[in-house]
Amino acid sequence: MQGRKRAGGEASGIRVGFTCSKKVGNAVARNRAKRRLREVARIVLPELGRDGWDYVLVGRKDITGTLPFDTLIADLRRAMTKVHG
Fold first, then answer.
1. Does the structure show a pLDDT above 90 at 12?
2. Residue 72 phi/psi, 5° resolution?
3. Average pLDDT for the chain
4. How far is CA 26 from CA 16, 40, 50, in A?
5. Which of 43, 60, 68, 76 is the most exposed place for a label (fewest CB within 10 A)?
6. Around 55, how many Cα atoms within 13 Å sit in the side-chain half-sphere?
């Protein structure tokens, strides 16, 4: 995950993007990974995301599609605390 604070005057609210390269697998695997990332973001970002920030969640080969869902949530929570210090 990556995050950055937007400059003043840009859009307000939390923005999030998702990316999965072909290294993740075929289209089915990439779409599954992105669906899982979207659901994790839907759960975690309202709680830990900050207004005026952009976040990018990156799908990883053999991890995003197969890791237990609770572990994905815990990983994003840990990443959010690292980004916001």
1. no
2. -60, -45
3. 94
4. 23, 21, 33
5. 68
6. 26
